[in-house]
Amino acid sequence: MTSLPSLRLPGLQREPLDWEQLIRRLVATALRLGASVEEAEDLVQDTLEVVCADPGWFDRSRGSLITALTTVLRNRFIDRRRHDQVHRRATPHLRLLEPPSATPDQAVAAAEARARRKLFLAQLTQEERALFGAWLKQDRRMLQAQEAAASLGMRVSDYDNAKKRLRRRCRWILLQLEIETHDLFGPEGGAR
To answer: What DSSP element (H or E) covers 154?
Structure first.
């Protein structure tokens, strides 16, 4: 997203703004409109970029800043939806590939789970991450143990031993971060 300290909205140089609250309100508005979390973040960024590019966009006599930004955000959202509808009509076979849209609560839960996964993965070394990826693929029946070991350039026995060490390390990291396994991988678990 645009760096907040350097962001200047025309006509508001004298007024201090609580950027975090402003952005949270805009993201919440986008989620209420039906946008996914990623789309909501993109909409807020687009809104701020459009507004900053036009020096005469805001007239204080016509309303508050949040109302003006919300109107711009809503119009950007509608424009995107119209564009998507036209695109879908032009390519009807792509409709089958679209994932179902999530509710705002599901979107927030998914964003929190992504944040927990990032925090967890940041604790692993690059080699551990590669091993973890092969382990997940094996656990999800995408690879056999021999294939997972070969993808890492290891013998199967070395792969199994490394997996045991990684399992202990993962448990220790999860304890340190106070994260439950089902919070990290969802209710179905994941790498055991």
So the answer is: none
pTM: predicted TM-score of the whole model, two decimal places: 0.42
Q: Is the Cβ–Cβ distance between 138 and 162 less than 8 Å?
A: no
104-185 maps to CATH 1.10.1740: no
| Helices of type H across 91-125 | 104-122
Cβ atoms within 10 Å, residue 173 = 18
Summarised one tens digit per residue, pLDDT across range 31-79 is 888 888 888 888 888 888 877 777 677 777 888 888 888 988 998 888 8
Strands (E), the chain: none
- Name the nearest CA neighbour of 168 among 138, 132, 116, 114: 132
Q: Where are the domains of the chain?
A: 19-97, 104-185
The dihedral of CA 92, 93, 97, 100: what is its sign?
A: positive
Alpha-carbon distances, residue 4 vs 1, 30, 32, 48 (angstroms): 8, 19, 24, 10
Q: How far apart are CA 132 and CA 173, in angstroms?
A: 13
Q: DSSP letter for 143, please.
A: S
